[in-house]
Every structure is written in structure tokens, then in C-alpha cells.
Fold this sequence. Notes:
By secondary structure, this protein is of the alpha+beta class. The protein has nine helices and eleven strands. It has one domain: q2cbj1_9rhob like domain (Jelly Rolls, Sandwich). The radius of gyration is 19 Å and the shape is globular.
Amino acid sequence: MDLCLSKLDFYQKNGFVRFENAISDSLLLKLRSLSDQLEESAQKEFFEGKIRNQYNMSVETSEPRLFRYNDLLFDSPEIIIELLASPMMMAICKDLCGDQCVPMQADLVYKYPHPHPHIAWHHDAPHSRQYPYLNVGVYLDDANLNDGCLRYIPNSQHNITDIYELSSQYGWEIPNVVQQPAKAGDILVQDMMILHSSEPKRSPGVRRTIYIELRPFSAIIENGKQSKQWAELRKEWMSYIIQAAAPENIPEGWYEFYGKPKYDLNTLVELIKEKWEPPIPAVWSHKNVEHPNYPTPADLR
């Protein structure tokens, strides 16, 4: 499977692109079921006082809600490998990330209505830009226009901006801002450094999105933010993905580069867990912004 040229061109020009109906209905159901199980277990642990650093709870209301659940590979490696081996994900790896692509993270974000968290303006993981670095959002629920869907500043991925100055002046409405809605089953790919945000959700219910970071193996090594061992374990993870993917979706030369898995899957997951290293931090405003309509819109205050 190849990505169409118009989508590739749009991504190169703007720093983000949406792929509609990108995963199968059966896979979507599996991922929703997984998200339900993780939320139920996290809430149970939270109320029992057994809090783990793998997830974050939002306590803005009397009913705490799960906000983020990290490292999905630890909980359901087979389903995450199935997702990454799906035709659209393999095409994204091949056409947007390129040779030596490996997954770095696979996390799940839950967005509940205000006053549960919004996402202020920020750049993800600053880097030299000599290699691609992608954040891939797999939507398990609809993200509708004017309901906390992602906001982008197109073509802003090349440099780190003064987020405090921009958001203090413009709030959510920075010049050239684009809202990007999505439907359940869509995939939204963004350059890690594009300036983006997500205002408060207004409609009832939850919106869940799995975020997967992709980067070439050599870029991780050259960047030096994580160790070679950390990168090698992700290369091993990718070898399992290739093993699960349809042969026609594997680019020439990838079997040779990644090789066959050295460890059984359970051992690999335990090694990745044991050798955990922090991700490259995002860049946010250096101090709190005071604006009449940001970050909480005036009608929600």
C-alpha cells in the first residue's frame, strides 16, 4: 500500500495530514475494548490508592477521569503490534518516516468535557530536523469541529516559537489557525514540532486517541537523547511488526535491516519496561498565560 501523492504533498507543505477510514472496523472495536479495560483498571487502582506512574488521572470533578495511559505495549502487545502492522500504518512508516522507521511510544489520551483538561499550545519533542519525527494519532472516537479537536498552525514545524507571546496575544485564535476534525477510525499524522493545541471538549462522553511516535533508528542514535540499547529494543519491536504485516506492505530491504526477533514477545516487553527511558519533553509556554478567552473560554469560566 502506498500513500497518495496529494496526501504526501499536503503533509510536506502543512506539517499534518488526515487519512480517512484508516483502520478496519474489527481493529477499531479491539482498540476501543482495550481502552475500556485500561480505564476501568486505572480507576479501580486509583480508588484503592494503588496509583502507578503509567497513567494520569484528571481530578477536576468529583468523578476522577483517566486522562492519559502510557506504554500500551506493556498491557496488550499483540493488539498494538496488530495496529502498527496494519496496511495504513505500514504505509505511513514507509512513505512518511522512511527506512529504519521504529516506534518509540504508543500511548492513549482520554479527553473528557470541561473542566477536564484541554491541551494548551505547544511543540512536541524539539529536534535537529535532519530526520523525520512523526506523531501518529489513531482516533477511536469522533473529534468534531468546535469541540476540542486539534488546532494547528500550518507550516510552523520548522522552528520553536514564543508560545507565551502568541497565546497571550491571540489565545486559541493564533493567525492562520486550522481546526482539524476527525472521525473514529481516522489517522491524523503530524510533524512532532508543529505548533498545536486542543481547546476544552464541550460535548458529553469521552474522546480517545492512541498516539504513536515514529522515527528512524539512526536518528535516535544520532540524537543521543535515549541510549543505543533503548533504540535497539525498539528495532526489535519493529521486527515483530514486520513479522505481523502482510508481505506486500513490507518495503524492499526491511527484512534484512530489522531481521528476525531475537527474544520472545513477553521477554521483549519486559526488557522495554525494565530499560524505560523518558521521552523528549515538549515545549510549552514558559509561564501562565492571561487571556480573556484562553485557555478556558469565557463562556466556560
